[in-house]
From TrEMBL:
Residues 116-249 form the CRISPR associated protein Cas6 C-terminal domain. GO terms for molecular function: hydrolase activity, acting on ester bonds; RNA binding. It comes from the Bacteria. Keywords: Antiviral defense, RNA-binding. GO terms for biological process: defense response to virus. Transmembrane segments: none annotated. Signal peptide: none annotated. This is CRISPR-associated endoribonuclease Cas6. Gene3D superfamilies: 3.30.70.1890, 3.30.70.1900. Belongs to the CRISPR-associated protein Cas6/Cse3/CasE family. The gene is cas6.
């Protein structure tokens, strides 16, 4: 399931870095830890977008000028999403970079019908290689048109599906069909215009800063419906709980599938 968290922006014109996923990851982790439930604090099967709103770009990063900004949070676990929202709304304000944000409301995106052939766009960069200390291999470029690119994503996806314990071993074994095919025309247009679809991004894990290569381009994924649902809800690739690899269905307007989302706050639970 996916929810949109809407914040009032109390200091319009303030900014965050162009890539601010690591700031969001730190904020989300802090809110989870505040709740004190170790099981849900350690839960990693979720994904989130960057902040959405009216922006202008400067050398400092993204300046937000809209009165409200939105964050999309996705997870197959309603318990996890409700736990996060319950603790988030205990704060009258959270700070993200230079932004002062006041949690206002939550919307639920209606479910999407997925099949064994889906065209996706990347809402956040797709990371295919894991990182380790004092090792630059995670910054290595791998062509999205190569079998190696698709194979690496298959391996990370199946590993995460096993770890999630949502599927039987028989189901996991049946998910052998997996092929990612990039939009070659899109890649050719960017190359011709000398624009990049792959960049180096910072990611923090256990207080250690790593640099990873992330890719942003549309692609078609051929895989079982259960696999499509998993990557749609949990993200694809590495560091998905750090805000990488969030996908959306191409040629769809998520604004057409929004409902108000109700959840119980801590004060409501105590009353």
């Amino acid at each position: 399931m996916r929810v949109r968290i809407i914040f009032l922006l109390k200091n319009r014109g303030s900014h965050v870095p162009f890539h601010h996923q690591y700031l969001l990851a730190q904020m989300i982790k802090g809110i989870l830890m505040k709740g004190g439930d170790e099981k849900l604090t350690q839960y990693s099967f979720y994904n989130f977008s960057g902040l959405k709103g009216q922006t202008k770009v400067s050398r400092k990063g993204l300046h937000f000028y809209s009165s409200r900004v939105t964050l999309v949070l996705s997870s197959p676990s309603k318990e996890f999403i409700d736990y996060f929202l319950m603790n988030l709304f205990e704060f009258s304000q959270v700070e993200l970079g230079g932004l002062y944000l006041q949690p206002e409301s939550v919307e639920l995106e209606e479910g999407v019908d997925l099949s064994d052939s889906m065209k996706f766009i990347c809402i956040s960069p797709l990371v295919i290689l894991n990182s380790s200390f004092n090792d630059n291999s995670s910054k290595r470029f791998i062509s999205p048109e190569s079998d190696n690119f698709s194979d690496l994503l298959y391996e990370s996806t199946i590993s995460r599906m096993q770890e999630a314990e949502l599927y039987t071993e028989e189901q996991i074994s049946s998910f052998y069909k997996f092929q990612l095919v990039p939009d070659k025309a899109y890649l050719a247009r960017l190359t011709a215009a000398q624009k990049k679809f792959a960049r180096i991004y910072p990611v923090y894990d256990q207080d250690v800063k790593y640099e990873v290569r992330g890719y942003t381009f549309p692609f078609t994924l051929y895989a079982a419906k259960e696999v499509q649902e998993f990557v749609f809800n949990c993200g694809m690739g590495r560091f998905t709980h750090k805000g990488f690899g969030m996908l959306d269905v191409a040629n769809s307007n998520p604004n057409n599938r929004v409902l108000k989302y109700e959840f119980r706050t801590l004060s409501q639970q105590d009353s």
